[in-house]
Design brief:
globular; alpha+beta; 7-stranded antiparallel beta sheet; Pnp Oxidase, Chain A
Length: 200
């Protein structure tokens, strides 16, 4: 076993093969369990992040989550929250959370100054969360309690330009359009109704 908050025996085996245990231990010194003001600013300005989950058998899934900047909020020293918006109804990520609360979040900036931040922890999904009543477009709220928060080297991040937010991202005072795929012959007879959400 290992007393590291970031590394397990599999990580250590490869670190030892590549003589990178020392740099890994040094990098772990930058890991934390509470968000810094810079972490908060980065997370709350993000228009998207990537969410990794796994089912009860450990089979992984990775999902893109997007919205208007501020859709993810740091709600406590070690907690963040984000809304679940209307989607395809499969609930791959959130269904995984119901059977396996372990999650990994990757926040990444591909424009301006490249930046990455990882948040690994445990998550809950709620239809009764108090944030639901004041989060435009939300049908569920996910809260994540961080086990470890750590910045990541941005070396391989391409420089990309963010042109416009998605027209489907919920915003105050407007209803986003339905995606075209919901009208396709293959799907239109079985599309679930959009759930009532806070309009703002």
């Amino acid at each position: 076993m290992t007393d590291s908050i970031m590394f397990h025996e599999g990580n250590r085996r490869l670190q030892d093969q590549f003589d990178s245990r020392r740099i890994s231990d040094r990098l772990e010194q930058f890991a934390r369990k509470e968000f810094t003001p810079d972490d908060r600013a980065f997370i709350e300005s993000a228009p998207y992040f990537f969410l990794a989950t796994a089912d009860a058998g450990g089979r992984p899934d990775c999902s893109f989550k997007g919205g208007m900047p501020g859709f993810v909020a740091v709600t406590g020293p070690s907690e963040l929250a984000f809304p679940d918006y209307d989607g395809n109804g499969m609930f791959k990520s959130l269904g995984n959370i119901l059977v396996n609360a372990d999650v990994g979040l990757l926040f990444i900036a591909m424009h301006g100054k490249p930046q990455r931040l990882r948040v690994n922890g445990t998550a809950t999904v709620s239809r009764q969360d108090p944030l639901l009543a004041r989060t435009v477009g939300a049908q569920l709220i996910v809260r994540v309690t961080a086990r470890v928060i750590f910045p990541n080297c941005p070396r391989y991040i391409p420089d990309m330009q963010l042109i416009d937010p998605s027209i489907y991202a919920p915003g105050s005072g407007r209803d986003p359009p339905e995606p075209a795929w919901k009208g396709f012959d293959s799907f239109k007879d079985c599309v679930h109704p959009r759930q009532p959400t806070f309009k703002g």
